[in-house]
Structures are given as C-alpha cells and as structure tokens.
C-alpha cells in the first residue's frame, strides 16, 4: 500500500509540473532535472500523417532514422530502405505549406518542416531529436559529421542547443560541464531543438564497419574543441545500450569518453535488472530509457491508458531517466507533453 501511495504521489507530481504556469517555480527546473515523454520513430506515416503533427503532439523527443545514401549523396529518412525515403516529412519550407505537401522527403526536408513549425510555435518546450544513423556516417562520400552539422545549422540556425552552449566557454569537456550541472533551465530552452546521435542497426551488424556513429562523432567533438571550432558542432553523441556502471570506460578511447553525456538504453533492462541508474542523475547526464512500456508490469506499447502513462513516467523518473520513449503516438498532447521531476 505504501508503494502504491508513493506511485500515486509521483504521478500527481507529474501532472502538477505539466500544467504549472510558465512563471511558476515548478516550471523552471534545469533540463537535467526533469523526465519527459518521447515518440519512437516519429517519422512513421502510420503514427503521424505529417511530421508537423509529430511536432504538434507535445512529445519531448522525436526519433528519425537516417541513411547516408552514398549514391545520391543525400540523407535519406526511412526505416528499412537505404536508397529511398519513406516518411511523413513533406516538401514544406514555410508555415503555410505545412500539413499538405508531398511526403517521403529527405532529412533536409524534415529539418525544413521543423524550421517552419518553429515559426508557428516559437515558444515551444525543448524537443530532443534523436537521430539513428542507420548505416553510420560516410565521410569519404561527403556525408560525415561536419556535413551533418552544416546541414542542421543551415536549416535551423540558432534554434539548436549545441554542445558549445553546454560548455559555455567555461568547461573543457561536456563531461565536466554536465558534472557541474551547467544545463540551462528548461524554460530557457523554449523554442530549441537538441540533437543526439546513436549508431544504427545496419551499422552495428556490418562486419566491415568498426567505426560507428557514436565514436566517430565523439572524435569529431574532441577534434573540434582542440582546433577551437567546437561552436560548429550541432549534436551530442549518445552511448547506446543499457549497462550497469559507466559504459564509456569499456567502449571508448580515454580521449573521447568526456564527450559523452547522453546515454540511451532499454528501460526494462535498466529497471528489471536493478541497474544503478542513480549514476546518471548524480552526474547530471541525460538518460533516454527506450521501450518504456516493457518495464514490468508491461503496458500497451501503442495506446495505454492515461493513468498507465502517468504511472510509467513516474516510475522511470524515480529510476533517473531523463526521457522515456515508446510508440504512444495515439495519446493526446496533454499526455505526451507531461513532464515530471527526475529523481
């Protein structure tokens, strides 16, 4: 009974924070101090007819699957077709063109949609854009980290919260900045997008590819900082896979470990196995807990009740997640926009 009362109290806290007035103290925690909800594969037309509707959904995280197409030298957006586009991003560059143009566009058009939507909603809460690089980067073909940065910068300009913003001209690495909790207040990130990158499923299964997105972008950040050009970076690489303890020590060279402050792993693996997730909140790292529905007891992966979503958000906030994701696109904006205090 005590556990049920505690869960109810946490769910109530989630609701209170979600509806608190913009100038209230409850609405001004740091980005690292909250837990919010995201949508897996938000580019899927079965979830949202247009990507602008995914942006409308209230979700704090939207995921895109991106292929570096070396034949066309373009960034494709699709679940399983590396040479074509299959998505809800439309050929819309202005607010008036949204919700009606042809879909199945490339990554640049997805960014155009975001820029147009941002004009309509300049005060929107921060949205994390999780990009799975399905086959990784291909720098030799002109589809490397620097070209990624350039495209995002051209399309979204100052509406992107960058690694240099976290460093603030004060800290020598992202790790140092995170441990000092240099994250801005959530309210100060209104109108902003934050990009994080994970290695893709195709890349990970390629026996000839041993230099994945995470390591490549980590090297990119280290080298940009060393050359005095860190301000050009537009994304944060994420450590992929739930682990107990600090997964960076066994995966990366010591020179790039401090450039990882985003972590991404299966929620059920973290929680059901009793992993020490307090490590992430203690260091003010951003922890993305995927497949939130799968934590025991499992709930619907597509359309759970509002109460089940609130309880799952509270449970994973208690387990130190920053963002939780599932395929809950059927839920209302009032549910998907819920934000609570991270333990």
From TrEMBL:
The keyword Signal applies. Keywords: Signal. It comes from the Bacteria. InterPro entries: PI-PLC-C1, PLC-like_Pdiesterase_TIM-brl. The keyword Signal applies. Residues 1-26 form the signal peptide. This is Calcium-dependent phosphoinositide phospholipase C. It comes from Streptomyces cyanogenus.
């Amino acid at each position: 009974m005590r556990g049920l009362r505690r869960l109810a109290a946490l769910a109530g806290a989630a609701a209170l924070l979600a509806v608190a007035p913009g100038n209230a103290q409850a609405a001004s925690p740091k980005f690292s101090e909250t837990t919010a909800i995201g949508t897996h594969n938000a580019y899927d037309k079965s979830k949202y007819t247009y990507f602008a509707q995914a942006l409308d959904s209230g979700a704090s995280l939207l995921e895109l699957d991106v292929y570096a197409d070396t034949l066309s030298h373009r960034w494709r957006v699709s679940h399983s077709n590396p040479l074509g586009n299959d998505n809800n991003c439309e050929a819309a560059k202005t607010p008036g063109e949204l919700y009606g143009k042809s879909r199945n566009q490339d990554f640049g058009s997805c960014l155009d949609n975001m820029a147009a939507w941002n004009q309509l909603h300049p005060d929107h809460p921060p949205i994390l854009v999780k990009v799975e690089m399905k086959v990784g980067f291909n720098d030799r073909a002109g589809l490397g980290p620097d070209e990624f940065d350039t495209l995002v910068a051209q399309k979204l300009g100052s509406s992107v919260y960058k690694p240099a913003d976290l460093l603030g001209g004060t800290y020598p690495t992202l790790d140092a900045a995170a441990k000092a909790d240099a994250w801005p207040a959530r309210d100060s990130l209104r109108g902003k997008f934050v990009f994080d990158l994970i290695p893709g499923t195709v890349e990970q299964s390629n026996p000839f590819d041993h230099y994945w997105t995470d390591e490549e972008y980590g090297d990119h950040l280290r080298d940009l900082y060393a050359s005095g050009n860190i301000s050009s970076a537009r994304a944060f690489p994420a450590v992929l896979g739930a682990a107990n303890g600090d997964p960076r020590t066994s995966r990366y060279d010591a020179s790039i470990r401090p450039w990882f402050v985003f972590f991404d792993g299966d929620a059920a693996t973290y929680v059901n196995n009793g992993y020490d997730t307090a490590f992430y909140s203690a260091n003010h790292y951003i922890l993305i807990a995927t497949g939130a529905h799968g934590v025991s007891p499992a709930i619907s992966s597509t359309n759970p009740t509002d109460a089940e979503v609130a309880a799952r958000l509270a449970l994973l906030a208690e387990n130190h997640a920053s963002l939780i994701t599932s395929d809950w696109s059927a839920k209302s904006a009032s549910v998907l926009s819920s934000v609570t205090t991270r333990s």
